[in-house]
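subagent[fold] <- orchestrator: predict structure for attached chain, return tokens only, no commentary.
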Amino acid sequence: MFQHLKNALVDKLDEQRTQERYCTIKWEDTRKIEIIEQKYIRLRPLQDLEDNVTYEIYIDGVKRHGTVLAHGTKQHCEFILNKSSPHESKHQVEKNNSNRLDDLFLMSILAKLVNKTQSDDTNDDDYDVHDAKCAACRMKPIRQVDRYHCLECTSPTYDLCGRCFERRCQTGKHFNGHAMVHFKLPNEVLGIQFNNIDNEVNLNRLRNLDTLRYERHDDIKCDGVCQKKNFIGLRFKCDTCPNYNLCETCAIDKHICTKNHEENHPLILTSNRVMPKIDPDDIEMGEVLGRGSFGYVCKAIWRPKNRQVACKVIEISDRSSTSDPNHRSFLLELAAYRELSGPYILRTFAYANRDIPANRNRGSKTQFMIIMELMGRGSLQDLLENQPNQLSLRRKLAMSRQIASGMRRIHQHGMIHRDIRPDNILITDNYVAKIGDMGIARVLDPTGQQTQLGCIQFMPPEFFRDVSDGHVKCDEKLDIYTYGLTLNQLFTEKMHHFRFSSSLPCITITKQSPVFYDEIISRCLDEDSKRRPTAIEIEKTLEFYEQAFLKTMNSDSYIKMTKQQKDKVFIEFYEKNKIHMQRFVKENFPQQFIREIPIEFINKPQQQPISNEQSNEMCRVN
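subagent[fold] -> orchestrator:
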């Protein structure tokens, strides 16, 4: 018994040590930089520690003053210390002294990006309130983002909000490679309702639920060592590797890693019910929000949840074949949303279909429905048209980074969207941007052969140059090009000019963005697709600017400014710092954050291409 208590005490002390926080400090008296434990810093009750702030510090009863350059884990602070101690001569140090503080400030921002544990994009929608606390950013309750509940951290239980999960945050004894349950809706996962997540959602309970215990995963093979096909029981998919599945034994008992899968890749409990099919009568249709060649989108009430949603409706004649482009688009959109989720990907909850009998005017048809989250401000195109000159450059920067984050997520899963443009970017009431309309998204084919692509006015040069037999060779750099056009339109509120010519169609930028044109937009639009940046490089660069401007954004003077004054301040900040920040990012940014993401090609039976698809049909309106 005493040995048991001793072991428990040792475990508790180990846990406390792993959670100890450190700071990288620059001392006022000596100007030296070193790492100390946070406990030595004198804080007022309920005061949070902040970077770039000077504090009183008491060590062994001696009072000193020091500026916090970064705070977090010891490893995190050591990274900043090493970066802040270049091997320079005394003359070089004196020469560069005027820029020294700037570099240290940028180092503190870099530290946040490497070990980020705060949620920047908030929304006060009352529908999605998860009764849990995020172990990383401390948000409680978890609101308006998905909840991830760890199945391997049981005492205490462990939860992350969607954004901290996306950033791969880990604290205490939690490890990124742990198996987790993904809650899109409060207290519901895989169509199963729970009353007490902490007590009911654990491995023992889940493996004994009949709906999961006896579930057969047809046409799915375990990618672990067992290589079982059509296995029965719990199934886990990797949140990083595309199309990587493990049975419970390989995932939990053996922690198997094969192919490109690594031990720190999160595993998510999944099922054939991950996108549940619901009764169409559960949906009460309302106002039509928009129409397109696919059908229409309307507001709706999901009656059993008493929840406002958006419902995408596609109607297909029963005389049409299964190769009907709209029917195919519906099936592929469902497949894409089953594979993808993230804070900046439009959330999809369920689907339904019903038969509509024939009448005097038409034959019988089938109505397909996708139930999605309702985005209060519609599309980015709607926002720019309905609220011209209302968005500040700072807000546009945040939206640009959010779109880049969603695009990075798509590419990480070995997919390309193929239709990123303002019509397909949806905006919440609080101006959070998410990528929607996955109807023509595809798994990246090793041959690069594609048949159905997005709006022709946004297509890159290779689309027109490499067309042969109705096929186009393209990869994820197509999305980078369309993102570049979208980014320029977001910052200028002017669409580019598209013109057909006798040789190749021509795209002309009618107005250049006042910010990010040289370092991002022009690179995205490079005719040589190999020279275009990756999605993660764009995301991290924009996030770097976002964090650098954060202190100004939160100042009382900035908050009281008009939109025009805010834009002037932002442009001055950008012009003053862009060369220095570009150099800093190039020299100091950890390469694991901006390297090309390896994409494992997935050889799947490809559906037959759609024949006789005209270019004017490619430009689809959402």
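orchestrator: received. Logging for downstream: Residues 8-19, 86-101, 440-452, 595-622 have pLDDT under 50 and may be disordered. The chain has four domains: 21-114, 129-270, 288-372, 380-594.
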